[in-house]
Amino acid sequence: GDPQRGVCSLPPRPLPCLHVRLLHRIGDGQSAIVWQGECDDGQRVAVKVWRETETMAGFAAPVLRELHFTAAHAHPSLTPALGYTRDPLGLVLPLGLPLPQLLSTLYQPTAAPPPLDVIVALCHHAATAVSHCHAAGLLHRDVKTDNFILVNGMLSLTDWGSARRQPVSLLSGTLAALEQPLSPNVGTYRFAAPEVLLSLPHSEAADVWSLGVTLAAICSGTALFAGVGAVAIFAEQLTVLGSPAASASRWPALLQLAPAVADLAMEGTTLNRLDERLAAMSRCLAREPRLRSLVHATLHWNPAVRCRAATLVAQSTLFSTCTPAPLVLERFGVR
């Protein structure tokens, strides 16, 4: 293919081509369908099969990008690629338990809340995954509960379809031709940072915001922001965090907004009600201020003020005494 057009005929070399029999659908996304499959040796796996429109010209740029990122960045907190399939075109991944399904198990209405060490372990692995992603020079750009799965007792981050190299990184070879300027319309609204919702420039700090919303869900089993659409979510952010008007000078991008959006951002109370909102979400958050502080560190209007994922992992007193996740989850009866 012509790399200048973002098309290549072959995936990255580290990934083997596998023969997998597709069994049944387990997920359905805009650009791909996830199947449970079975390899020739009987191993059950997940297969992310891209829709035909994504692959009409061979390995289209988004497909090749995900194949490359998944193969090139091995880490326990990042879901490893086992290989790829050619017909249909798909990425073979370990078969894991999606985080939303795990949370529904942990937060059953009639059950006692999960122990603190279980919650801390899950938060630790989510933060570690985002930290490693950034250390590798990548922006994931769609951090959310749906993109974490439990594999061998460990939470790992998956779905690299929206990922990009950080703008300061220099690339070489085929992948360099596939890199494009960061598009603002990425991610999932409920987890998206305000600068993403408002189509402003974004950086790794947008991933950190999404991590914070994910941590709130891990600590409560419910969504911090539950509106439908970008405008509704932004309005919820204003309700919870208060208007950024008083700190406009500390978030310069606010001054670049269209007048109508800027007026909305200037309205309402300046009172930050995040702590109150978190405490009302679950008994775990109400009783443990250190959990609330994890979320507080990530949710600031000004991206420059948000705590980096690596700093969150390194400095949290909760994480410094964290029990390894597999041991915690096995003791709690989740595998």
Folded structure, characterized:
With 335 residues, this protein is an alpha+beta fold. It has helices at 61-72, 99-106, 116-135, 174-178, 194-197, 204-218, 230-241, 259-266, 274-281, 283-287, 289-298, 309-315, 317-320, 325-331, and strands at 20-28, 32-39, 44-50, 83-85, 90-94, 97-98, 138-139, 148-151, 154-157, 164-165. It folds into two domains: 18-94, Phosphorylase Kinase, domain 1, CATH 3.30.200; 97-331, Transferase(Phosphotransferase) domain 1 (Transferase(Phosphotransferase), domain 1), CATH 1.10.510.10. It has 14 helices and ten strands. Helix 3 (116-135) packs across helix 12 (309-315). 43% of the residues are buried.
List key phrases describing it:
335 residues; alpha+beta; Phosphorylase Kinase, domain 1; Transferase(Phosphotransferase), domain 1; 2 domains; 3-stranded antiparallel beta sheet; 14 helices; disordered N terminus; ATP-binding
Helix content: 25-40%
Q: Output the radius of gyration.
A: 20 Å
Q: What fraction of the residues are assigned to beta strands by DSSP?
A: 5-15%
Q: Report how far the terminal alpha carbons are from each other.
A: 43 Å
Biggest sheet: strand arrangement = 1-2-3-5-4
* Count of structural domains: 2
A few lines on this structure:
The protein is α+β, with helices and mostly antiparallel strands. The chain has 14 helices and 10 strands.
